[in-house]
Amino acid sequence: MASTRKRGGKPVAPQAKHEELRRALLAEVTDMQPHTPLPTERDIAARHAVSRNTVRQALNALEAAGSVYRVQGAGTFVASRVISKSLSLTSFTEDMRARDLRPESRLLTAGVVRAGTRVAEDLGIEPDAEVVRITRLRLADGSPMCLENVHLPAARVPGLAEEDLTGSLYDLLAERYRLEAHAAEQIVRAVDLDDTESALLGVPPGTSGLRVYRVGLDRRDSPIEATTTTYRADRYDIRFTVRRNQS
User: Fold this and answer.
1) Which of 68, 109, 209, 217 has the smallest number of Cβ neighbours within 10 A?
2) Each residue's pLDDT expressed in tens, for the chain with a length of 247 residues
3) Residue ranges of the domains in the chain?
4) Phi, psi (5° rounding) for residue 18?
5) Which residues form the HTH gntR-type domain (predicted)?
6) What is the distance between the alpha carbons of residues 88 and 181, in angstroms, rounded to a whole number?
7) What are phi and psi of 228, to 5 degrees?
């Protein structure tokens, strides 16, 4: 499979077999639907006349790039497209609809609890004050994307825990309570997902994730939400533009 080419009249060292195979497989999976199973390593090796080790190297590179994913005992599958989250303040529902994906929410828990020190500090309330805590699994076209844990001051959203929380929370807050987030302060960290998070998100334990802690602010810069969202790192990245200051 490896070949020697010339560049500018000079011979170039032959490309490693696993790299040629990676390129060939990448061209194939690009036209395949997400979650489509790939042939077995044995079949790939036979079809491309390479060793099983070469196949593993190529698949390892594709997995590292997020083009495929592996499920122990089941095989290798085409990965879904990565969703790039910009620095604009948008809801999960808005992000998914902008990409022609069907947003869904699976409500895990909803109720009124004590704020506690950290949430109280971020929301500008007392630690013993009540907050509505909502935990949801967010999905796109039926595929788990992130876990969301929201805290809102109970005094500003009476009865929220009894509402239908399977749609856009931002829309519900705006329509029912006249609360809208116009800005947010966010912290993003890389984390290893625990067993519960992994099970809910449908990935192996210890898989990397992105944890975003957000405090949403209204027009008066008053906090209205403290939200922790844990994203699948194989489905999300955060993209933004930076510019060099001119002296």
Assistant:
1) 109
2) 544 445 455 444 456 888 899 989 988 987 888 788 999 999 999 999 999 999 999 998 888 666 788 887 889 998 776 666 666 677 788 877 776 678 889 999 999 999 999 999 999 999 999 999 999 999 988 888 899 999 999 999 999 999 999 988 999 999 999 999 989 898 999 999 999 999 999 888 888 899 999 999 998 899 999 999 999 888 777 776 667 777 6
3) 13-78, 83-238
4) -65, -30
5) 11-81
6) 12
7) -110, 120
Token pair, residue 86, equals 């910009």
How far apart are the C-alpha atoms of 71 and 203, rounded to whole Å?
A: 8
Please state which CATH number belongs to domain 13-78.
Answer: 1.10.10.10
Length of the chain: 247
Tokens 């949801």 belong to: 136
* Cα distances (Å, whole numbers) of residue 143 to 29, 79, 108, 137, 147: 19, 11, 16, 10, 12
**Which CATH fold topology does 83-238 show?**
Chorismate lyase (3.40.1410)
**Alpha helices for the chain (secondary structure H):** 17-30, 41-48, 52-64, 92-98, 117-123, 169-177, 195-201
Q: What is the pLDDT of residues 153-162, one digit of tens each?
A: 999 999 999 9
Phi/psi of residue 87, nearest 5 degrees: -85, 0
